Amino acid sequence: MYTFSNKLRTFSFALIILGLLGVGYGFMTSHKSLEEVKTMLTEEASTHGGSHEAAATHGISKDSHSNTTHEVSEEDAHAEHVQHQIANRPWSALYVAAFFFMMISLGILAFYAIQIASQAGWSPVLFRVMEGMTSYLLPGALIVLGIAAASHYIGHNNIFMWMDPEVTNPESEHYDKLIDGKSSFLNVPWFIIRGLIFIAGWSLYRHFSRKFSIAQDTAEDSSNFKKAFRIAAGFLVFFIYTESMMSWDWIMSVDPHWFSTLFGWYVFASMFVSGITVLSLITIYLKSRNYLEFVNENHLHDVAKFMFAFSIFWTYLWFSQFMLIWYSNIPEEVTYFVTRFSDYKLPFLGMVVMNFVFPILMLMNADYKRIPWFVVMTGLVILVGHYIDIFVMIMPATVGDRWFIGIPEISSILLFAGLFILVVFTALTKAPLLVKGYPFRKESEHFHY
Amino acid sequence: METSKVIHAIYNDDDVLMSAVKKVKAERYHIEEIYTPFPVHGLDKAMGLAPTRIAIASFIYGCIGLTVAIIMMNFIMIEDWPQDIGGKPSFSYLENMPAFVPIMFELTVFFAAHLMVITFYLRSRMWPFKKSENPDPRTTDDHFLMEIPVDGNEDALTKLLKESGAVEINLIDKAH
Predict the structure, then answer these.
(1) pLDDT tens track for B13-71
(2) Which of A248, A402, B2, B129 could disulfide-pair with A85, CB 3.0 to 4.6 Å?
(3) pTM for this one?
(4) Is B49 domain-assigned?
(5) Which positions in chain A have a beta carbon within 8 angstroms of at least one beta carbon in chain B?
(6) Which region, left, alpha or beta, applies to residue B36 given φ > 0 means left and ψ of -120 to 50 means alpha?
(7) Per the domain annotation, does B136 fall within a domain?
């Protein structure tokens, strides 16, 4: 049995408190009056030497609110737009971090189901670590949905512009015909109901798979294993539909005019590789604390293989999505990448280096996959890279070129990292770290590369 | 013609073979070659063979393929015959690079795979119409054959091999 060390618990609480303070600070400082924004803009224009940049930003902002006709002067409209972007930043920062940690759990839940459905022989020694990680899914996903709903009910539609009732009101000057056409799907109540259905399905599978897994420890026969196998296969079908729809709802709809048909896969690749990376980090951590004595470098080798393979898979999807849109060059599609190339060049291209070039060079050699510190180092870079991936999915739509990875973003990461550690390691103490009665346990223990 | 004597010890089980290899190595005999009907996991380690370097070769071949793709696409699409495809005039390599990525990927894989196979065959001294080196056709079915050179110590060696579970031991004059 694992005992949650006081040091780690204190550390997670410290992260949560630090994160909360920073998030609070982010929200407090995000309300700027129009006058403040205007002075800020004139200062920026003078330091940047000309109004070129402001004009460029305005072109993009006009693009995303194409039907908006402001009575006020151009300058006022721009300042108001920037004011909104500044107000959106802490919301988006919180949302990106919440989603990032939720998707680690969701990714590993799918990984776990695949291991059971495929009756994998190498991985059962890691099942309890995976089960611990998926315990964060229910709170994490509810938080994500909660933030999305709160941005409508408490905030001013700070993340999803389609939530604004004005854009679907034909009388309004903000009326957007395209969003109105999608409003039978994209409306707040249906969005929340859908989200709850997804979360309910995932959590039910998580609940029962955990129950059967623990029951199998002391069972005489393998009936629990059979049940776990059956629900795993069923869950995977449910998952691949709901994961795809979740990614449209929770991420792609921040750009309600834009869509990509492989977006669900793309998000899946990101969550899968992040989940597997965190699995390897937690496994290495537990081993360094003298738990998991039955896990050896052969298991680590296989986990690192998955990190390597799915980093390449992610790149494949990232590039497939990019190349088709770049090649066809259709204005309403290509605008997505135009914003990213003009305002997010460093994170957008930097993440390809972190998520592809770095892992491919670091983890290609078989021997390096067996060295814990090497895997940890590569894993941390992969995780940062996939945080940036989510960041670049959300931020261009909400804060435009007013992005920075500063106090709101880092505090949000700290907050959810603390919560993740607290929930996951508490769940790890609840059951023995070895699935004793699992039929493939022996095979897994003797697994040899 | 110079001749040397070798012992051919034949086994009919891979587990017996593995433990025999360990025994023979422990007695510090040199194993010349082992013929098996299928790859026996861990046999290379037990025989004390140096780890394969084919992965390094494969990496180098992949790099060559990538370089060939880059240079080839630059010559074909930019220098030799620039065309305007889909409103993207191909006058700049960098701006058209995304269109070349699939070719870079394919040629990297192509070079790595094909050259690796060819290297493996050459390194194993295999080429078309080559006569088989296999000393006993049964090793392509269900027997395992261990070849050990002898140097006046055949009695001790025969005894050791008998103990290790060999079903047949033959002393052979090998012509070079």
Answers:
(1) 989 999 999 998 888 888 888 999 999 988 988 888 888 899 999 999 999 999 999 99
(2) A402
(3) 0.88
(4) no
(5) 319, 322-323, 326-329, 364-366
(6) beta
(7) no
